[in-house]
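Can you give me the bound-state structure? Components:
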Amino acid sequence: MKFKASFFIAFLFVISLSKIQAQDVPRNTINIPDIQGYKTLKCDFHMHTVFSDGTVWPTFRVEEAWQDGLDVIAITDHLGHHAKNKVDADNFNKNYEIAKPEADKLGIVLIKGSEITRKYPYGHYNALFLNDLNLIDKPNCIDALKAAKDQGAFITWNHPGWKMPGEIPVWDSIPELFYNNGLINGIEIVNYTSYYPLAFTWATEKKLTFMAGSDIHNPSSAEFNYQKGEHRPMTLVFAKDTSIASIKDALVQHRTAVYYKNYLFGSETILKSLFNASVIIQNPVISIDADSDNNYYTYIKIQNNSSIDFDLELSEVDKSLKVSEKVTLAANSITVLNIKPAPKDIKGVKEYILKYTVKNLFSSPEKGITVEIPVKINFS
Amino acid sequence: MKFKASFFIAFLFVISLSKIQAQDVPRNTINIPDIQGYKTLKCDFHMHTVFSDGTVWPTFRVEEAWQDGLDVIAITDHLGHHAKNKVDADNFNKNYEIAKPEADKLGIVLIKGSEITRKYPYGHYNALFLNDLNLIDKPNCIDALKAAKDQGAFITWNHPGWKMPGEIPVWDSIPELFYNNGLINGIEIVNYTSYYPLAFTWATEKKLTFMAGSDIHNPSSAEFNYQKGEHRPMTLVFAKDTSIASIKDALVQHRTAVYYKNYLFGSETILKSLFNASVIIQNPVISIDADSDNNYYTYIKIQNNSSIDFDLELSEVDKSLKVSEKVTLAANSITVLNIKPAPKDIKGVKEYILKYTVKNLFSSPEKGITVEIPVKINFS
Amino acid sequence: MKFKASFFIAFLFVISLSKIQAQDVPRNTINIPDIQGYKTLKCDFHMHTVFSDGTVWPTFRVEEAWQDGLDVIAITDHLGHHAKNKVDADNFNKNYEIAKPEADKLGIVLIKGSEITRKYPYGHYNALFLNDLNLIDKPNCIDALKAAKDQGAFITWNHPGWKMPGEIPVWDSIPELFYNNGLINGIEIVNYTSYYPLAFTWATEKKLTFMAGSDIHNPSSAEFNYQKGEHRPMTLVFAKDTSIASIKDALVQHRTAVYYKNYLFGSETILKSLFNASVIIQNPVISIDADSDNNYYTYIKIQNNSSIDFDLELSEVDKSLKVSEKVTLAANSITVLNIKPAPKDIKGVKEYILKYTVKNLFSSPEKGITVEIPVKINFS
Amino acid sequence: MKFKASFFIAFLFVISLSKIQAQDVPRNTINIPDIQGYKTLKCDFHMHTVFSDGTVWPTFRVEEAWQDGLDVIAITDHLGHHAKNKVDADNFNKNYEIAKPEADKLGIVLIKGSEITRKYPYGHYNALFLNDLNLIDKPNCIDALKAAKDQGAFITWNHPGWKMPGEIPVWDSIPELFYNNGLINGIEIVNYTSYYPLAFTWATEKKLTFMAGSDIHNPSSAEFNYQKGEHRPMTLVFAKDTSIASIKDALVQHRTAVYYKNYLFGSETILKSLFNASVIIQNPVISIDADSDNNYYTYIKIQNNSSIDFDLELSEVDKSLKVSEKVTLAANSITVLNIKPAPKDIKGVKEYILKYTVKNLFSSPEKGITVEIPVKINFS
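Here's the bound-state model for the whole set.
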C-alpha cells in the first residue's frame, strides 16, 4: 500500500525533472581516419535555407551540421530572385551573416558560397569561397560564373544528370565551354540520393575534383533516415588544417573523396590509405588442432575503427588456405576471419597474403580497390 | 570474370535510379482508436516558425505534421515583435496564409492561432481559433487576451511551471484573475518534455481542458528521437468530425486527453474507453495437463491494436489463480498472459475477472486506471 | 532539498518493480492481406535446433516464431548422425515432441519435418508433413526421400546453389532423377540470405512450389538485424484455413509466394492480388489553382496497409499528366502522389489510369508486376 | 529499354552475392575507460544454457558475449538435476568444456562456475573459479557452498530479493550464517531487469563485492532490446590484466562496479575515476559580445568518450554565472554547455568551478556522485 503510494508520489516530481535544453545539442562522431599527413574533414558544400527555396533558418543549418558530425559547410542558396515565396533579402550575403556566429560558437567552418542557377541547357553551379554574393547576381550564366571566379571562387558543376533522360549527364557544348574557361573545377558525383557514374569517369579524365553535396532543402533529419543509419552525402577533404585557405587548397589539388551511403568514391591511393588507416589486423591465434570437420584451425581478428562497413570479397589467395570468400568488416567493430589451412602436414610459421576487393570502395565506377591482409600462421 | 563485370556494370545504372522525390512524404500511422461515437484526432496546438523564434518555414510545419501522423495543428508564433532576428512580417497572419494551401493539400486541419507572450508574472497563452492576428497585438497582456476572446478564441495557459523554481507552477493572482475573466479555458499539463502534475490537478478541479503542446521551435525530428520511438506530446481531441467547429466544441466540452511519451492523462471514463477500444481479449485456450512444475496450465492472448504499450500491474484476483503480476501489452502486438489455476480438483468451466491497474494511464497524478480482464477456464 | 530526497527515495523502489516475465512475449504484427478467399499464412519451413547443428532448444524456435509474427513453422533438423557434437537423441521425433506443447500454447502450427542431408552431388531436401522421422533414417539419399514420400511428404530442394561456383544452381542428372520420381515438389528460391534466380525460373517452368526458408541455426534475432527492419525469409501460403491439411493442399497446389527482404516473388496473379488488397487509393483532392511554378495542381493519397514498401516506377501515363516517375508507397503509411495536369484549358472531370511497375514484386527474375492506379481529376 | 533490362539482369546476380557467413560475427565496442592503472573488463558472471534450464548451446553463449562486447563470462548452469527437460549430462563440467575452444578462439575469458540452487529459504549462489563441478553436487546447500569454497571459489548471493514480497531482500539467519562462514563474497545488486537497492546498502556495509548478472536463459538478443539501445547488466571489473588470477583478485579486493541500463553503481572513488576518464573538457571559446538577450556569451564543449550518457544536474555554482541546470553528456558525443556570465563589467581571465551531480552514477542508493567542471572565461 505504502509502496504503491511512493511510486505515484515519486511520479509527481520525477518527470518534471526531465526538461532538456535544446541548445545543448550533442554531436555525433563519424570515424574516418586522417591520412597522408592531412586532416580528414567531413564537408557538405551544398545546402539551402529560407533565403532561397529551403525550409530552415541559416543557424539551423549550422546546428544540424554540428549534430551530423560535419566539420565544414557552405550554405549555397540560389540568389534571391529564385526565392520569391521565401524571405526577400536585398543583401544576398545575409544567410552567411546570420549563420556565422553560430558556426564560430560550434567550431564549424562556414564557407561563403552560392548556387548559380540557370535553366537547361546551363544548369546549376556552386561557387565557393566568395567574398560578396551581391556582385555575382548577373543575368547571364557565364557572366555570373566569371564574376565568381573574379573573387577566386572554386566552382563545381552540380547534379550534372538532373532532369536529363535516365538522369544520365551529357557533356555537350555548355560544360565544354565552361570547362575550357576554367569555370568548372569540381563536379558532383553524388547529389542528394543520386549517383552519377559518368561524372565519376569525367572527374578522373578531366581532373575535376570529386564532390558530393546533400543539396538539402528540408532539415537533414527529414531528408535522411538516421534511424536506419543513413547519413547525408559528404565530400571528404584532406587538408593541412581547418583554415579556409587549406580547405581551398585541398579542393584545388583534388584531395577529396566522396562518402555516399556506405560507399567511398575516390582515387585508388586515397581509398587505400583510408582503408589501411581504419583497419588493424590483430595477430593470428596460434593454430589449434581441430576436433571435427566443423572446427576452423585458426582465425584472425580485424578491427575496423571507421564508421564505414567494408564489404570484402576474396580476389586471390594461396591455394592452400581456405578463407571466407565474402566478409564484411563492420564499422566500429572487430570481425573474426576464419582460416582453414588445407595441408595438414605443414610445420612451423608460414606467412600468407590474402587479397580482397573492397566492393564498396570505388576508384572508378567499374572497380573496387584491392587490399592486402597479411597472415602469419603457426603450424604447431 | 564475366560475373564480376556484370556487378559493376549494373552498379553504373542501378544507383542513379534511387532518387527520392521529397514531396512524396509518407505518413506514419499512430493507432489510437475512436471512442464514444467520436473521432479521435491527434493534435498539436503549439509550435513556432521563422515568423517568430522558430527555425522552419510554415509549410514545413504542415509537412512534418503529416509525417508525424497528426490530424490537426495550430502554428502559434509569438507576434512579430518577439522575432526581430527572424522574418519581419507586417502582417501577423502571414505564417497561417503560407501554411494553409499545404494543409489543404495534405488534409491537415490548420487552426489559426497565436502565442500571447509576456514576461513573468504574466506568462504565455495560446489563443486558438482566431480570425485576425493583427487585432490582438496589444501592449497589455490582459488586453491581448480579451482581444483574442472577442474573436471567440479558446485560450490555454502554456507551460505553467516554466522558469519557476523546480518547474512547479504557482496559481497566484494573475492566473486567478485571468481564470475568473474566462481567459483561461485549457492548461498545458505537458509542454515539450515537461510534465506538470499540479496543472493536472488544477485542470480536474477547475474544469480546464487537458492540453499538451510540443512547443517545437526546431524541426520535430530534431527535437524528438523518433529512432528510439519517441513522439511529440499530443492533445487527443474526441470530436464529432474534423470540422473546425467540432474541434472547438470538443475543446470547450473538455473532450481531450494528453498523449505524452508512453503515458495518457485524462478522465477515467475516457481512458477506460481508450483501453477497451484498443484491446481484444482472445478466448482462453482450453486447459491442458502440466507435465512439470514449469509448465503453465492455460493462457489467454491479449491483442493490443493501439500504438501505446499498456503497463499492467495486478491489483486484485481470485486467490485460486496465479497470473502474471506485471505484464506489458506491447503496442500493435499480441501478448500471452500465463494463468495457473491453483486448485487442481476444480472441474468444468469457471469464469474469473482479473483486475489490473494500467500504470501508464493516469486519471489523476496519483492514480492509474483499473481495468478488468474476464477469463473463462475450462477445467477438463 | 526535500525534492532531491524524494527522487532518490522513489528510486529505491521504482526500479525493482520493472521485472519482466520473459514468458509474456509479445508478438509483432506483419501485415500481409488475405487474398482470393484464402488466409495468408506466414511460414518458415526450414530451421535447426540443438537436435542437429543448431544452437537453440526446440521450444525457443516456437517462441521466437511467435515473436517474429509467423503462423506456421517446421523444425527440420538433420537426422541425429549429423549432429555428433550436439544432443544425441535415439528418437528423431524428439525435437518435435518437445516443441509441440509450446506451439499449441501459442497457436503456432507446427509441421513435423526433417532435412534429408547428403553431400554433393545429392544435396539437402526438406521432407514436410512426416509422421515418424525414425523411418526415414536410410543410408541412401533416394531411399530416404522415398521413405518420406511413403509418409505423404511434401519435399523441397533446399538452397539449390549452395557451395556451387558463384552459388549458381545446376539442374543435372540428380535433380532430374528426383524430379521425375516425384521427389521434388517445391524449391527454395530463397534460403537464408541467398536468392537463386535460376530456381525461380525452374519453379515456374517445372511447376515447383515457390519456397523460402530461413535455415536458421542460431536464434533468429542473432541472424537478422531486426533493428534495421530485417525479417527472415518467409513462404507465404494461401490456405483455406490453418489446418495442416489446408496448408499441405496450398503447397501442393502451388499457392505460395516468397517474402524476402522487401521483395515478393510469385505468380503475377498472386502478386497483383497482394498489391491490390494492400493498397487503398483515396479520392483525389479537387484541383486548386497554382500560384507559382513550384506548386502542384492536385494529388492523390495512397494508403499502404501492408508491411511491405512498394517501389513504383512509372511505366505508362497519359501524356497530358505529369506524375512522380518513382515513388515508394511506404509500409503502413499514406503516400501523397503529386499530379500536374499539363493542359491548363481542360474543364470538367476527367479520368486517367496511371500504370506503374512495382520494382520489388517479381513475377519472374526479369520482371516486376505492373499495376494500375485510377485517377479522377476535377478541372474546375 | 536497355536500361530497364540491365536493372533486372543485374538483379539476377547481385542478390545471390550477399550470403553472409554467420561465423564472421562482428563485435560491438562498449567504451568504458580504464582507470587507476587497471584494465576495465566488461563481465557477465551469470547465465544458463541447455545444460540446465536455458535455451541455447554453450558455444552460443560465447559468441553472443563476443558480439555484446563482453570480455569475461561465466556459464553458471544449475547442476544437472535441475534440468530434467533439457540435456542430461553425467559430467557437470561439460558445458564449460564445450564452450572453452570457442572462448579461446574469440579471446573471451571463460570462468568455470555453477549456480548452487536451493528453494527458499536458501536461495541461489554463484560459485566462480571452480575446478570440478562434479565435486559440488551435494544434497545440502551449505555443504555445496563449502565444497565450492574448498576449490577456492568466489561466491555471490544471486537476486537476493527474488520471489520475496515486493522483491525486497531480507537478511535473515541464512545469509547471516553463510556470510559468517565466508560463503558470501559478493552480492548481485542487479539481476536481469531487477535492481535491489537494499543489496547495494548491504554490499557497502558488509564489504561484499558489487555484482550484476544477466541471468539470461534465452539468447541475450531475445532478452534485451538492443534496437532501443539496451544492454545486459554487467559487472565492471578493474583488473591488472585479463588473467583469471587478476580477475579473481579484483573481485576479492572489491574492485568492481555495476553497469545497469544507463546507471553505474559503485564506490565514489571508482565512479569519479570513470567519469573523469570518460570526459574531456575543451577550452572555453573566448567570449564574444552578445547582440541580443537570446545569445549566450560563451560556451564550453564537453566530449564524452564513453558509451554511457551522463545526466548532470547543477548542484553549486558561482552566483555570477548562469549555466544549464540540467544537461546530458550524450555517449560518444560532444555536448555544448552554454554559460552566461552575469556581471558585464568583469574584465580579464577568470576561473570558475561548476559542480554537478551525476544523477545516474550512484555511490549509494540515495546519492549520485558530484563532479567538478573547471571553466576559464576570458572577459575581453
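A couple of observations. The first helix of chain C runs from residue 2 to 14. Chain C has two domains: 29-266, 279-379.
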